[in-house]
Amino acid sequence: MSEEILEFTQHLINGIALGSIYALIALGYTMVYGILQLINFAHSEVYMIGAFATYYGARWFGLLDRPGISTFVLLLVFAMICCAALGVLIERLAYRPLRNAPRLNALITAIGVSLFLQYTGQIVFGADPKVFPTLIEDAALASFHGVSIRSFDVAIFGVTLFFMIALSYLIQGTKIGKAMRAVSANRTVASLMGIDANRVITFTFVVGSALAAVGAVLVGMKYPKIDPLMGTLFGLKAFVAAVLGGIGNLPGAVVGGLIMGLCEEMVVGYISSTYRDAFAFSILILILFFRPAGLLGKATQEKV
Amino acid sequence: MPEKAPILEVQDLNVHYGGIHAIKGLSFDVREGEIVSLIGANGAGKTSTLRAISGIIPYTGTIKLLGRPLTGLQPHEIVKLGVAHSPEGRGVFPNLTVLENLEMGAYIRRDREGIRRDLEHCFELFPRLKERISQKAGTLSGGEQQMLAISRALMTKPSLLMLDEPSLGLAPLVVAQIFEIIKKVNKEGMTILLVEQNARMALEISHRAYVVETGKITLSGAGSTLLHDRRVIESYLGA
Asked: How many other CB atoms sit within 10 Å of the CB of residue A44?
């Protein structure tokens, strides 16, 4: 196989791995938007807390130098629980009191919560980057003419796939999932069916935040330097992915995430890593220009 | 005729929207097994009355279901007590299938067997829904959506079924069909509170009716009586 194809394949694998993590975070943005029409800017900080929960969890549980599947699963679940709790707390304290206020108020509050968590993180965790614990060994599982498939990539791909299938079953096949779709379609009518919208909204935050934790653990494994501001740019790019796919649309978030990850990896591989972020936001500008509703989103007319 | 027990009692209901006094001291009741209509022009306060009963909008006054005050309860709690509300404009969940919409109607219920039976019953009432069972509700015609909205309300297994403008935007033939079903559901024992602008259709099937004008009840009586009342004919039925 020629050198070029090998290189391209390697970038493709990396891009899919990165993209599936973007997709996980983008799902959190898009779920909350679908149900509250709120862009939860604090979501990127929930993701950050997921990384730190794993960092401290590894210390508390004495799992620092014991990489393995059980360590990975235990810390993943721990981070998911921490993030879910944080998500519920944010919704209760910051968003619920504004449920009937103009949408802009909640949006500004979301930015406020985001900044609050960033700076609280710097006080509590310290501003210096920390080294993420090794959860599993990054061994090359298979090598094919120089293209290596590493255990991290398999873990990232496998875990994201698992959670996406689980989420899809949750939304399509379970009672609470149908209630989520009903509330997102029409909260008032949903309440006329006896659905407690607040409970459904809380549940949405639980799921979205837990997915952010999964994303954080996977990113931490691959790029093991974490700091309290790590969510800012990564979260913003995941948000762009959600917009790219059509915000409020779950398959759209996955598609958007994969496109973002692939594009970014290709830019890094073939152009220059200097432009990776510029490229992400150029995509945002282009979509907003040509397809404001996103790739899979439905165009809606604002009533004036 | 001996009076049946009241299912719903509304006393001195007042609703304010900002500075506007939309409902001014409305009082009426609905008794077991009746169809009671609120008729009146657009904006008279009929829909607001239903929304108050369901707990969607704040009000003053008393609303009692089977003698139990509903004041201060959330909409989802009121549904559990037995009030079903098929809202104006139908409000089907467009992104859910017909079956899923009906399942949402049964959201508060745990009796699997009963749910299955009621589902079958809805399909008997509206065979069209069975044909469209796995279709997204947003792709249904207006009439089909109305059938779905009524069925979905029935799936909550209510003591009182409230229907807001079931004729809205539908062809006369479809309206006639839907009103036949409303009559049939009532014959099977369902107590119904109907809000309609189509006064003739409403009065024809109602045991009793109230005429609502700018937030007040101006006339009330048996449906058949009001159908021949000079004032009703002049204002609501045309010549």
From this structure: 26
The pLDDT, as a whole number, for residue B55 is 96
Contact B150, B88 (CB under 8 A): no
Kind and range of the H or E run holding A222: helix A197-222
- Contact (Cβ atoms closer than 8 angstroms) between residue A83 and residue A215: no
For chain A, how many structural domains are there in total? 1
- Put simply, the answer to whether B104 touches A190 (Cβ < 8 Å) is yes
- By the CB < 8 Å criterion, does A196 face chain B? yes
Q: Is A99 on the interface with B (CB under 8 A)?
A: no
Does residue A304 fall inside a structural domain?
A: no
- Comparing CB atoms, the residue among A179, A184, A192 nearest residue B75 is A192
CATH code for the domain of A55: 1.10.3470
Instruction: Say which of B87, B94, B96 has its CB closest to residue A192.
Output: B87
Task: Write out pLDDT tens, residues B64-78.
Answer: 999 999 999 999 999
Residue A302 maps to a domain: no
ipTM: 0.93
Q: Note whether B96 contacts A181, CB cutoff 8 Å.
A: yes
- The Cα of B230 is separated from the nearest Cα of chain A by a number of Å equal to 38
Q: What is the DSSP letter of B97?
A: B
Question: How far B96 CA lies from chain A's nearest CA (Å)?
Answer: 7
In a domain, A146, yes or no: yes
Residues of chain A with Cβ-Cβ distance to B103 below 8 Å are 175, 178
Q: Assess contact for B167 and B178: CB atoms under 8 A.
A: yes
Candidate CATH numbers 3.90.1150.10, 3.40.50.300, 3.10.129.10, 3.10.105.10; the one for domain B6-237 = 3.40.50.300
| Yes or no, beta carbons of A193 and B79 under 8 Å apart | yes
pTM, full prediction? 0.91
Q: Is residue A226 part of a domain?
A: yes
Residue A1: pLDDT band with limits 50, 70, 90: low
C-alpha pair distances (Å), B162 with each of B80, B102, B122, B145, B199? 14, 17, 17, 16, 16
Closest by CA to A80, choosing from A51, A56, A42, A116, is A51
| pLDDT tens track for A221-262 | 989 999 999 999 999 999 999 999 999 899 999 999 999 999
Q: Give the range of the structural domain holding residue A26, as residue numbers without chain letter.
A: 2-129+140-290
Chain B hits for A188, CB-CB cut-off 8 Å, are 56, 75, 87, 91
How far is A301 from chain B, CA to nearest CA, in Å? 17
